[in-house]
Every structure is written in C-alpha cells, then in structure tokens.
Amino acid sequence: MYDHAATYREQRAAFHEAFERVLSRGVLDWGPEVPAFEDEFARWLGVEHAVATNSGTAALKVALLALGVGPGDEVVTVPNSDIATTSAIHHVGAKVVWVDVEPDTFAMDPGRLDAAIGPATKAILPVHLYGHPADMPALRAIADRHGIPIVEDACLALGSRVGDAPAGKWGTAACFSFAPTKHLGAFGSAGMVVTDDGALADRMRLLIAYGQPRERHYSATPLPLRHLADGLNERLDELHAALLRVKLPHLEGRTDRRKAHAARYAAALADLPLTLPSTRQGAVHTFRNYVVLSERRDALQRHLHAAGVATGTPYAPPLHLQPAFGRYRLERGAFPVAERAAARLLTLPVAPELTPDQIDYACERVAAFFAEDASSPSPSPTS
Ligand SMILES: *Cc1c(COP(=O)(O)O)cnc(C)c1O
Q1: CA of 116 to the centre of ligand 1 (A)
Q2: Mind listing the pLDDT tens digit for each residue in 105-124?
Q3: Is 55 in the pocket of ligand 1 (CB under 6 A)?
Q4: Dihedral (C-alpha) 309, 315, 316, 318: value to the nearest 10 degrees?
Q5: Mean pLDDT of the chain
Q6: How many CA atoms are closer than 13 Å to the CA of 166, on its beta-carbon side?
Q7: Is 53 in the pocket of ligand 1 (CB under 6 A)?
Q8: Which atom of ligand 1 is closest in space to residue 60's alpha carbon?
Q9: Rg (CA), the chain
Q10: Which of 254, 122, 92, 269 is nearest to 183 (CA)?
Q11: Residue of 47, 67, 88 whose CA lies nearest to 234
C-alpha cells in the first residue's frame, strides 16, 4: 500500500540536511522550524493562520476546544470516518450526533443535516473522505443559517478543492493529519489546524502549549511565565517541522502521481462489475484512497491478498456499530448509506511512490478475479 523507504530515498540528502540543521542548532523546542513550517503551510493552502500540532486528532480536539465546545454540547458528524473524528468530540466532553452520507462521495449528506441540528448543536464536523471534498457550499449554507461553525476534518483531503477554494478554507477551522500515510506524511505523528480567524488561531496556540503565549519563547528580553488557559501539550516538534518543510514543496507532484494512478485504475477497471470513484462537478479529488465498491468485496479482497496486492476497508464497520460507541444504542440500519458502502468498499494501492507497473499489476489481478468468476460454475444454492 505504501513504500515509505522509497520516499526517503527520493529526498535523502534534503532530509539529512534538515536533520543536521536542527540537531546542530541545538534548539529542539521553541525554535524557528515550527513557525516557519506554519507560515509555509498557510501560504501553500491559502489560509491566514496555521497552528502545528502533534497529530490530526490533536488538531480536531484543539479546534473544538477553541470554539468553546464542551460538556452539554452536541457536534454533528458522520459515522464512516477515522475514529479520531468522533473521539475528538468525546474528548472535549461533547456528544456526537451522526448523520448519514451521500452514496457517491461518502461525505455528509446536506439533505440530512438540518434534521440533526438542535438547540445543543455547537459545531458541524464534515469529513472529506478519501480525498473527495464534502459538498461544502450546501453544508455552509445550512450551517450559516443556524449560525453554527463548521470544523472541516480535512485529514484525508490536503490539496482537494471545491470550486475556487481548497478543502480547509470552507470552515471556521479545518484540521489536517500528517500521519505517514496521509498526503503530506511525517515520519511519525503530526498535524495542523488552520483558520482565517486570528483570535481563534491565538486561542488554539495557547491550548496546544500549556496555555502559555508563544511570544515568551521568542522574546529577546525575559518575560514572566504566564499561563492564560488550562492548556494541553499538543505541539509539533522542531525536527518534524524541518522534515515536513522538505516535503511540502513536493506535495503537489506527489498528489499528481496519486491522480495519475487513479486515472490508470479508471481506464483499466471501467468494464468490470465494480463501482469506481466519481468526482463531483467542480471538485478536485486528491485520492488519499482509491475506493471501489463490489458486491463480492470479501472474495475480491481474499483474491488480491493471495496475489500480493494490499487492500483496505476504511472505515468498516462504521463507528456506530463499533463496541466503543455501544452506549449510543444504535443498531444496524441506523445509517443505511454508510453501512451499505462499508459492506462493499475496498481500497486499492494508490500511494505516490508506487510505480505504474505496480498499479497495472493490481489492475490485472482485479480483472483476473472477475474472469475466473465468470468461468467458474455458479455456487450451488446450498453453499
Ligand atoms: C488520520 C485521520 C485523523 C486523525 O489523524 P492522526 O494524525 O492520525 O491523529 C482524523 N480524521 C481522519 C478522517 C483521518 O483520516
């Protein structure tokens, strides 16, 4: 699915230079790399402020805290996401209200949002799943009508766009993950939360760093220790910021390779009994995952596994059917669109460091599955 060592080899010298720069400077905390990375990332994305965190989960948690979400509040999100989306809501003390998704993009269905909003709703948290953005103009219109902020979970969608604006520009705040397998992958855990609201950015900066104003650490003259909030320690470290600064200029090229792999799949798999990913008019899909739907998903997955093709099933079963959230007492059938997708979806390898030959091999093995299937006798009714 991934080849992190190949990515390392491609930019080995630049990684070593960054590593050497940070270690020989000897400033491992409150150095120049984190602010520089934040500025470069904000400029790349086209937002006013970026606050570097030590994970996407931390970014979600800090965005919610800074917006004042807490006990007694509800946050509307979707059940077919990384558990971090829902856990972040719980970890600030709020309650989750899941809504079902669109069948083609797997993202929050704007047609179901209104009914999920109530007097306790404090934020709306759509997820841009697999690299395809949610229908942000429609979600924004509803959120604005209710005066409720949107926090985008853009952890899978760095570089995706809706119309003129990138994923990350539509909400009051937006969260990104730099986990190794995301679009901009760190060598461990890292993340970012962005906003155009300066006061919100200041609150988030306090919250990720013990409630201390950052300025103190960059002041030429000694400043007294001041804790302005009951903060967390969710900051990014200098070494990671330096390594991510090496990777950021290569992000667009790597995303283009994902798109090229996706186009290769689309051409090779077009005539097979699979539902291939679609991209909504006006949207840019950045293919963190290449997701197909098959009525014979489990057999196809076993066949590909035996042929040495890695696959995945993110995120099945959906969160409302996971033991961790049994307290919501939601049964199968609560979110039929998400459940139907979860029972059929399969991701194929699409990482940028993979070669076109590797993608072709995956395509051949998928085609072989359906060819064998067509030539073998139908299963007996009792099987
Ligand atoms: C990866 C991911 C997260 C969590 O990010 P981490 O960096 O792993 O904490 C949250 N939401 C979604 C949709 C993700 O894919």
Answers
A1: 24
A2: 999 999 999 999 999 999 99
A3: yes
A4: 180
A5: 96
A6: 23
A7: no
A8: 10
A9: 22
A10: 254
A11: 88
Measure 155 CA to ligand 1 centroid, in angstroms. Answer: 5
Specify whether the CB–CB gap between 133 and 107 falls below 8 A.
Answer: yes
Tell me, yes or no, if the pTM score tops 0.90. Answer: yes
Residue 288: pLDDT over 60: yes
Phi, psi values for residue 46, rounded to 5°: 90, 35
Helices (H) and strands (E) in the chain, counts: 14, 12
Please name every residue paired with 154 in a beta bridge, in sequence order, or none if there are none. Answer: none
Residue 131 Cα to ligand 1 midpoint, Å, equals 12
Kindly indicate the confidence band of residue 375, based on its pLDDT and cuts at 50, 70 and 90: confident
Among 270, 257, 271, 274, which Cα is nearest to 311's? 274
Q: Which residues contact 376 (CB under 8 A, 6 or more apart)?
A: none
pLDDT at 378 over 70: no
| Residues whose CB is less than 8 angstroms from the CB of residue 238 and which lie 6 or more positions away in sequence, other chains included | 22, 27, 28, 29, 31, 33, 34
Cα 214 to ligand 1 centre (Å): 26
Q: Classify residue 9 as exposed, middle or buried by CB count within 10 Å of its CB (0-12, 13-18, 19+).
A: exposed
User: Ligand 1 pocket check: which of 54, 60, 85 to mutate, most ligand atoms within 8 Å of Cβ?
Assistant: 85
